[in-house]
C-alpha cells in the first residue's frame, strides 16, 4: 500500500482533485475517530469545518454501516453531503420491505437461538443487524458463537468489523455498488473512496485505478486498497489538501452537480 500523504500518494490525490470527482467516505474510523461507545462517535470540530467546505467544492457522499437516520443526525450542519446507510443499501427514500422482513426474522431467530452472552449488544438497523461484542468478557469466544449461529440464518451475508459482526441481506447493494451508482447519478468521471474496515473492501476490490482511488485508514497487508493513511488523524490533512487544490483549479472551483 502506498502512503496517501507521501509524495506518490499526494501526486495521485492531486490528479483526482477535480470538480467532477466524487468524494466518498466511510464514517466510523474514517471521518470520525473510533471510540469505545459507538453512540459517542463524533467528528472533530476541525474535520466538520473542512468537510463542510470540501462538500461545497466536490460532490461528496458518506456511506456508513449505520442507519441513514443515525448518520444524518451526526452530520447536522453538513447539508451538502449525501448520506447512504446500512453498508450501501439504504439510499434516500429506500423502502425495501423484503429486507426489513428478513432482518426482523433474523432478530427473532437470534433471540431464540443465541445463548446468553454478557456484554453482547444486538443493534437493529432495520436493513441490517450489527452484533457488537466489544464489551463481552471474552470477545473471541463471543465472536465464534455468534458467527456459528448467524450461519444458520436464511439469505444472510456476514461481514466482520472492529468488534462487530454485521448481518446484511445477501443480495443487497454493497458499498462498491453504492459508489458506482453515486458516480453515475452525479455524472462524476472518477471517485476517491476512504474507509477503514472489512465492509469498505467492497469498494477496494473494484480495482479501477484510473477512475477510483482507494484508501484504507491504517496499513493492512490483506486490504485490496491501493493507498493507506497511517491513522485516522490523517483525514484532516487529506481534506485540507483537497480544499486547497479545489481553489487552485477551475476558476472558483465549482462542484459538478
Ligand atoms: Mg468504518
What does this structure look like?
It is a single chain. With 257 residues, the chain is α/β, with parallel strands linked by helices. Helices cover 34% and strands 19% of the residues. It contains 8 helices and 11 strands. The protein has helices at 7-16, 45-57, 68-74, 97-113, 139-150, 175-185, 201-204, 235-248; strands spanning 2-3, 21-25, 60-63, 82-84, 121-124, 129-132, 156-161, 164-169, 190-195, 212-217, 227-229. The strands form 2 sheets. Strands 1-11-10-9-2-3-4 form a 7-stranded parallel β-sheet, sandwiched between helices. Strands 5-6-8-7 form a 4-stranded antiparallel β-sheet. A hairpin with a 4-residue loop joins strand 5 (121-124) and strand 6. Residues 251-257 have low confidence and may be disordered. Bound molecules: magnesium ion. Magnesium ion (MG) binds at residues 26, 28-30, 195-197. The site of magnesium ion has 7 residues, from loops.
Topology:
Elements: E1 2-3, H1 7-16, E2 21-25, H2 45-57, E3 60-63, H3 68-74, E4 82-84, H4 97-113, E5 121-124, E6 129-132, H5 139-150, E7 156-161, E8 164-169, H6 175-185, E9 190-195, H7 201-204, E10 212-217, E11 227-229, H8 235-248
Parallel strand pairs: 1-11, 2-3, 2-9, 3-4, 9-10, 10-11
Antiparallel strand pairs: 5-6, 6-8, 7-8
This protein binds magnesium ion.
- Main sheet, how many strands, which sense, barrel? 7 strands, parallel
Q: What name goes with the CATH superfamily of the largest domain?
A: HAD superfamily/HAD-like
CATH architecture of the largest domain: 3-Layer(aba) Sandwich
What structural class is derived from the secondary structure elements? alpha/beta
How confident overall, as mean pLDDT? 94
Number of helices: 8
CATH class of the largest domain: Alpha Beta
- Ligand inventory: magnesium ion
Strand order, largest beta sheet? 1-11-10-9-2-3-4
Report the sheet-strand fraction.
15-25%
What gross morphology would you assign?
Answer: globular
Number of strands: 11
How much helicity do the residues have?
25-40%
Amino acid at each position: 500500500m502506498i502512503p496517501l500523504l507521501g509524495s506518490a500518494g499526494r501526486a495521485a490525490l492531486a490528479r483526482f482533485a477535480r470538480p467532477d470527482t466524487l468524494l466518498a467516505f466511510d464514517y466510523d474510523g474514517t471521518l470520525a475517530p473510533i471510540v469505545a461507545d459507538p453512540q459517542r462517535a463524533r467528528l472533530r470540530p476541525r474535520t466538520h469545518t473542512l468537510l463542510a467546505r470540501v462538500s461545497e467544492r466536490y460532490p461528496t457522499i458518506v456511506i456508513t454501516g449505520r442507519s441513514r437516520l443515525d448518520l444524518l443526525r451526526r452530520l447536522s450542519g453538513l447539508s451538502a453531503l449525501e448520506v447512504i446507510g446500512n453498508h450501501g443499501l439504504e439510499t434516500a427514500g429506500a423502502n425495501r420491505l423484503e429486507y426489513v422482513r428478513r432482518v426482523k426474522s433474523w432478530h427473532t431467530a437470534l433471540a431464540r437461538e443465541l445463548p446468553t452472552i454478557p456484554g453482547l449488544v444486538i443493534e437493529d438497523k432495520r436493513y441490517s443487524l450489527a452484533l457488537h461484542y466489544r464489551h463481552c468478557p471474552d470477545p473471541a469466544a463471543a465472536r465464534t458463537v455468534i458467527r456459528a449461529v448467524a450461519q444458520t440464518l436464511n439469505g444472510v451475508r456476514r461481514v466482520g468489523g472492529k468488534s462487530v459482526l454485521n448481518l446484511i441481506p445477501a443480495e443487497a447493494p454493497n458499498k462498491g455498488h453504492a459508489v458506482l451508482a453515486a458516480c453515475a447519478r452525479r455524472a462524476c468521471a472518477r471517485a476517491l473512496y476512504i474507509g477503514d474496515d472489512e465492509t469498505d473492501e467492497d469498494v477496494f476490490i473494484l480495482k479501477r485505478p484510473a477512475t477510483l482511488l482507494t484508501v484504507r485508514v491504517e496499513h493492512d497487508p490483506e486490504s485490496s486498497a491501493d493507498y493507506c493513511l497511517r491513522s485516522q488523524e490523517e483525514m484532516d490533512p487529506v481534506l485540507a489538501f483537497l480544499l486547497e487544490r479545489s481553489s487552485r483549479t477551475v476558476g472558483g472551483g465549482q462542484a459538478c452537480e
